[in-house]
């Protein structure tokens, strides 16, 4: 097992999470300019901001079949291309409709990455490292948000005028291109390779990244049994009675995360600070500070999660709702 290769491959895959965070937060610095450029009412501005979220829902729901057919790594490459198209398309949008389309396309990438990035990391990681490595995706989401806020702050300071919002969206093309290029250094996940009967390739990947029990041949047999169980329908259904409670709790946590109103803060933070009396550049800086607090608290949670346990931290976190 080569830990260095495992960590580097994980970081590359988790760039999907970083772009998730960047794409989600970058629009916060552009709302004023979008309102002026496209002559939008408050309702249509809200719809414009939400357009990416519509794509996010569709991307998350539909990505599983392409990921199974083409492989997790190859699907991430496609996602990286979609991120790149969205960034450049949003930056060079020629009217409101084209802008909506490219933001929707970016949402597809966000939704898809939220599924495929952690799935790929889980499939390349030995069990003893899996939890911590998968958590890197979540950490990268808040890093991406902070980078978007900071990027918006820097661009605001350049006083570019009416094209300022185009630069804010266009900057995302840089990490998207980096994500695309670096993914070619990552191997396909061993589980997908075994599912496609590419056993020799799977052996090489398992040899590089390690196994749960120390034996490559046993790991391959266990994966084969698991895949056969899925295909024959012997596995218990997800919505069976014994799983209903944890599933409903997981859905409730995700729902309350959104219903808490946190997205309104992320999407409109600079506007809120301006309403409170801050100047344009000061409002952007205060938004950066919000992103910094978010990343510090995320790091704190990751640091204590194994000590206090998931349930206790979720109970503490639910107080904020």
Keywords:
2 domains, mainly alpha, 81% helix, 321 residues, 16 helices, Growth Hormone, Chain: A, 0% strand, globular
Estimated share of beta-strand residues: under 5%
Report the C-alpha radius of gyration, rounded: 21 Å
Q: What integer is the average pLDDT?
A: 87
The tally of structural domains comes to 2
Structural class: mainly alpha
Largest sheet: none
How many strands appear in the DSSP assignment? 0
Q: What name does the CATH topology of the largest domain carry?
A: Growth Hormone, Chain: A
Could you give the order of the helices and strands?
Answer: HHHHHHHHHHHHHHHH
Q: End-to-end span in angstroms?
A: 43 Å
Q: What gross morphology would you assign?
A: globular
DSSP helical segment count: 16
Question: TL;DR?
Answer:
It contains 16 helices and no strands. By secondary structure, the protein is mainly alpha-helical.
Structure description:
It is a single chain. The protein is mainly alpha-helical and 321 residues long. It has two domains: 3-186 and 236-318, Growth Hormone, Chain: A (Up-down Bundle); 193-235, no CATH class. 81% of the residues lie in helices and 0% in strands. The protein has helices spanning 3-25, 31-37, 42-62, 64-70, 72-91, 96-124, 127-157, 164-170, 173-183, 190-195, 199-209, 216-232, 241-259, 262-275, 280-308, 310-318. Helix 1 packs across helix 7 (127-157), helix 6 (96-124) packs antiparallel against helix 7 (127-157) and helix 11 crosses helix 12 (216-232). It is globular.
């Amino acid at each position: 097992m080569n830990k260095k290769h495992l960590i580097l491959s994980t970081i590359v895959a988790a760039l999907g999470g970083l772009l998730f965070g960047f794409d989600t937060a970058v629009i916060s610095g552009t709302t004023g300019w979008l309102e002026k450029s496209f002559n939008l009412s408050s309702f249509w501005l809200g719809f414009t901001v939400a357009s990416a979220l519509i794509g996010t829902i569709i991307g998350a729901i539909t990505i599983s079949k392409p990921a199974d057919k083409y492989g997790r790594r190859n699907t991430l490459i496609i996602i990286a291309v979609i991120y790149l198209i969205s960034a450049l398309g949003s930056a060079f949008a020629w009217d409101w409709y084209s802008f909506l389309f490219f933001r929707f396309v970016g949402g597809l990438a966000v939704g898809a990455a939220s599924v495929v990035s952690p799935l790929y990391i889980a499939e390349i990681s030995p069990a003893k490292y899996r939890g911590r490595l998968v958590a890197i995706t979540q950490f990268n989401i808040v890093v991406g948000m902070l980078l978007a806020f900071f990027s918006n702050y820097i661009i605001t300071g350049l006083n570019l005028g009416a094209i300022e919002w185009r630069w804010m969206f266009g900057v995302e093309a840089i990490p998207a291109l980096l994500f695309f290029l670096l993914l070619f250094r990552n191997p396909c996940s061993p589980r997908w390779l075994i599912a496609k009967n590419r056993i020799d390739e799977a052996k090489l990947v398992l040899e590089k990244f390690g196994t749960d029990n120390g034996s490559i041949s046993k790991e391959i047999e266990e994966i084969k049994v698991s895949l056969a169980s899925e295909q024959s329908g012997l596995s218990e259904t997800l919505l069976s009675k014994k799983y209903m409670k944890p599933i409903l709790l997981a859905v409730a946590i995700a729902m309350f995360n959104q219903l808490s109103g946190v997205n309104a803060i992320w999407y409109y933070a600079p506007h809120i600070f301006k309403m409170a009396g801050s100047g344009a550049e000061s409002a952007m800086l205060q938004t950066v500070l919000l992103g910094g607090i978010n990343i510090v608290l995320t790091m704190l949670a990751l640091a204590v999660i194994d000590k206090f346990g998931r349930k206790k931290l979720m109970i503490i976190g639910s107080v904020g709702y």
